[in-house]
Design brief:
This protein is of the alpha+beta class and about 150 residues long. The protein folds into two domains: about 40 residues; about 80 residues, 2-Layer Sandwich (Alpha-Beta Plaits), CATH 3.30.70. Helices cover about 30% and strands about 20% of the residues. Helix 2 crosses helix 3. The chain is elongated, with a radius of gyration of 19 Å.
Length: about 150
């Protein structure tokens, strides 16, 4: 799908997920049907999701972790998919540099780092090592609730 300037502008307008298609259409001087059709197509193509997100700092006893993962083999896409299925995992990226994968993970006091490592990461074979970065303060990170 070609993501043209109008699609980008509709996506920008949908940053406020509660904004109606009618309001967006009025602001962009197009019809509500155009907004609706394009938004549905962007969602069908997997380009756009309209979801609720949270600021993890504003929910007591929740925290964000970034984890670098080194693998024993180069089956990166399969391992990324395996990690994506784990409880608490928000996203997985195949990256360059000292790690093979970078995970973004939401944890809390009931399901913390120890539980994540022992109960979830242990499910994935061929993990050589991990390095964990606890996010003490974030600026603008909004995430879907995954716990």
């Amino acid at each position: 799908m070609n993501v043209d300037e109008l699609n980008i502008e509709i996506i920008r307008q949908l940053r406020n997920g509660r904004k109606s298609f009618d309001e967006i259409a009025k602001e962009l001087s197009i019809t509500p049907n155009t907004v609706r059709t394009r938004a549905k197509r962007l969602m069908a193509e997997g380009i756009l999701d309209i979801i609720g997100v949270i600021d993890p700092e504003k929910i007591d006893n929740h925290f964000l972790v970034i984890m670098g993962v080194k693998l024993k083999n180069m089956n990166l896409v399969k391992k990324a998919q395996d990690f994506r299925k784990l409880r608490g995992v928000i996203s997985v990226g195949v990256v360059t540099g000292q790690f093979d994968l970078i995970l973004t993970v939401l944890l809390n006091n009931e399901f913390g780092l120890l539980e994540f490592m022992a109960k979830e990461v242990s499910k994935v074979s061929d993990v050589l090592s991990t390095e964990t970065f606890i996010v003490y303060k974030n600026y603008g990170i909004k995430i879907p609730y995954t716990l």
